[in-house]
Amino acid sequence: MISYDPLWETMKRKGVSTYSLIKDHAFSRGTLDSLKHGRNISTATLNDLCNILSCEVQEVLRHIPDKQ
User: Fold this and answer.
1) Is residue 67 part of a domain?
2) Neighbour count for residue 67 (Cβ, 10 Å)
């Protein structure tokens, strides 16, 4: 499972709001909804987030192994 919990922590630390992502960086509300609900995002979106936040991938998402 992929968790985007690190994203919200990184955004808070960097002072970037969801409003800023929409207004200043042309992020779609649909993409933000996908992130909030743990749905899949593209690697292009991941790249955009890393560029906007000047961060590494692990500051946006975390892999949690599925239970067997």
Assistant:
1) no
2) 5
* Domain coverage including residue 7: 2-55
Number of domains in the chain: 1
Closest CA relative to residue 56, chosen from 10, 22, 15: 10
Q: Residues 24, 50, 43, 40: what is their CA dihedral angle, to the nearest 10 degrees?
A: -80
Residue 36 lies in a domain: yes
What is the C-alpha separation between 64 and 41, in angstroms, rounded?
Answer: 16
* Structure confidence at residue 4 (pLDDT): 97
pLDDT tens string 3-33: 999 999 999 999 999 999 999 999 999 999 9
Global pTM? 0.90
